[in-house]
Amino acid sequence: MQQGTLMRKVKSKSWKKQRYFKLQDDCMTIWYQSKRTGKTESAFSISDVETVREGHQSEVLQSLAEEFPPERCFTIVFYGRRGNLDLIAGSAEEAQCWIQGLRQLIDPKSFALTFALLCLTWIRDWFQKADKNKDGRMNFKEVQHLLKMMNVDMNEDHALRLFQDADKSESGTLEGEEFVLFYKALTQREEVLSLFQEFSEDGKKLTLLELVDFLRQEQLEEEGTEEMAMELIDKYEPSETARARHVLSADGFLMYLCSPEGSIFNPQHRALWQDMNQPLCHYFISSSHNTYLIEDQICGQSSIEGYIRALKRGCRCLEVDCWDGPNGEPMVYHGHTFTSKIPFREVVSTLGKTFWGNSSLPPPLMGTSPPSFHLQRGQQASWRNWALQGVSLSPTPQELKHKILLKGKKIGRLEDTLDGPGDEVPDVSDDDNGAEAEEERRRAKVVLMDDVPITQYGSALQKDKETLAQALSDCVIYCKNVSFRGFQEAHSHSRPSEISSLSEAKARKLIRDAGNEFVRHNARQLTRIYPSGMRTDSSNYSPQEMWNVGCQIVALNFQTAGTEMDLCDGLFSQNGRCGYVLKPPFMRDEETLFNPSDPSSREGPSPITLTIQVISGQQLPKVANSKDGAIIDPLVRVEIHGVPADQARQETKYIENNGFNPRWDETLQFQLHVPELALVRFVVEDYDKTSRNDFVGQFTLAFANIKPGYRHIHLLSKDGTGIPPSSLFVHIRITE
């Protein structure tokens, strides 16, 4: 990583300012300063960075594509609502230096190094915040102020004792290593130390065999525990001497428990672990509604950023509403509203750049039925080629790698498209020359633009032929849109290549009146659910009730944070975040008896019991816009989202005035009748006896991904981003 690199910071086509960017010595902070004044403008932590996009992957950089090559451009994307940082380096080499360096620093595989650096960063940050007079020392009054900032309400005598123990120089102030000692004493994890000593014979270290005992007895690790113990020592033990002796210190033990291996989320399920050779209708598919919108449905902004964010979040079903634009250039926006517009060409370009770098699995692209749907020649040819090569009548995600599916109206049957030669569109590049190339362009234009639709698509096939361009129809392969006229007709006439779209209200009625038929229908055919038109504020319905009957494409407004998106993120955070989750076996059987309203209809093991001991919390954030000096009173609520019989919630008592290291030591217990469909949501709130509790943090995951034992839960903010180092420490047991 280079130091003090001069780059252009870009906010718009006309706003391009040169700034010096530098990675500080802690390897966790980047600051930038004005070239002209030399004044530091801003700084950010590596922990705030979600990803780094290479090339023209933002609207601003796309607008500068002719001026600056993609090799010099990159975008730093932050967690939460902080705006992206678009940068243009002086050379392709400098850009790569920063891109690769940042990616290495934010890579979770380098957790041990990153965790240690983060700890030092947090300590330094707290010191700088509390050192009011900036003399590099901290007196006891400043320490008391620091405790308030850290969400700690500590007895003054105890705080003074910790202060004096750390003041080795007896100067009445803390500086340098003295403050580090004070911070470590403050963050001492008694509950973890007690657990460590329970398995350590001398109370100072865990031998290899003692660590193996802990992994087997408490963490319920079954295979390869000796090899795993060796790996954990090598990875998380900070002392070289201890590593050489194959022992784990208390610090190393805590580091392991805070690591991905110590997380409640089974690390093996983070990777692609499910069978991807089933028909598409056998998967839940991460799906968005009006993907281009990043605000409300009436006057909100349309932006390619909506597509980028959705794809990066694992979404695989995107919506593209195309309408006539000036000069034959189609535009994407929410029709008959005041939302802003973006060129269709930019959407397709963004999808190509963003998607293929994110996953090789296909997203069905959703197209509605506006008065006119223009597709440019090159774009149609590309989509058609991706969709048509060598796949069966009932394709699987594995077969559809590197292809894109379009959902929409179609003339005729899938078999006709696959069997017939069709009107192939010549692949003529923009820089072709000569009369032959010009003739190819003319013929291509005739093929694609002759039968441009000019009215709303009708339901009758004849009307479809009159209003739907054949070339566009031929692009719709495995997601032919058909009207839903009841389960009996669908069973008699539907094909695996067809899909029906239902409003949330229609879907709820079908769930209530014919739950089992709905499950069977979804074992054969794709169903898409979309929000009510009354949700003009881009609010969401609960996706869980739709998943309970096997609906695959449950479209949500990704721009709106809340429980519904927490559930969506929780379900699709597994399986390599590919956006596809295999439905349980009893939902893939076309003759299944399962009905979510009757758990006994599920074939399988008897109900299981989930026991959660909520032990403690660590460095919980303050509530947004809270008063100066206010300290939260945290409680933990555990919610079960699943079939109606499994829906439940329980919560701990609240801990008064302690958001830094609250201890609950409370046990919550749940019985799950259909655990295969259950999602577990952990929520931390600030208790308020006079008004509604305030949100502090949450974490949601599918029950199938829970790892039993002593585990940390790393909390997320309201919009699904990390808030390190905030976490919960729990003990999980699962019994039949």
UniProtKB/TrEMBL annotation:
EF-hand domain span: 118-153, 154-189
- Ranges for region Disordered: 415-439
Pfam families, A to Z: C2, EF-hand_5, EF-hand_like, PH, PI-PLC-X, PI-PLC-Y
Q: Where is the C2 domain?
A: 588-717
Q: PROSITE patterns annotated for this entry?
A: C2, EF_HAND_1, EF_HAND_2, PH_DOMAIN, PIPLC_X_DOMAIN, PIPLC_Y_DOMAIN
UniProt keywords, alphabetically? Calcium, Cytoplasm, Endoplasmic reticulum, Hydrolase, Lipid degradation, Lipid metabolism, Membrane, Metal-binding, Nucleus, Repeat, Transducer
Ranges where the PH domain occurs: 1-107
- What cofactor is this protein dependent on? Ca(2+)
Origin superkingdom: Eukaryota
> Where would one find coiled-coil regions in this protein?
none
A single GO molecular function, which one? calcium ion binding
What cellular-component terms does GO give this entry?
endoplasmic reticulum; nucleus; plasma membrane
Give membrane topology per the record: Peripheral membrane protein
**In this protein, which residues make up the domain named PI-PLC Y-box?**
472-588
Q: Name one GO biological process term.
A: intracellular signal transduction
| Record carries keyword Mitochondrion | no
Which ranges are annotated Acidic residues under compositional bias?
417-438
CDD domains attached to this UniProt entry: C2_PLC_like, PH_PLC_delta
Q: Where in the cell is it found?
A: Cytoplasm; Endoplasmic reticulum; Membrane; Nucleus
Q: What is its EC number?
A: 3.1.4.11
Catalytic activity, per the record? a 1,2-diacyl-sn-glycero-3-phospho-(1D-myo-inositol) + H2O = 1D-myo-inositol 1-phosphate + a 1,2-diacyl-sn-glycerol + H(+); a 1,2-diacyl-sn-glycero-3-phospho-(1D-myo-inositol-4,5-bisphosphate) + H2O = 1D-myo-inositol 1,4,5-trisphosphate + a 1,2-diacyl-sn-glycerol + H(+)
This protein's name: Phosphoinositide phospholipase C
Q: Which organism is it from?
A: Scytalopus superciliaris
Q: What lineage is this protein's organism placed in? A: Eukaryota, Metazoa, Chordata, Craniata, Vertebrata
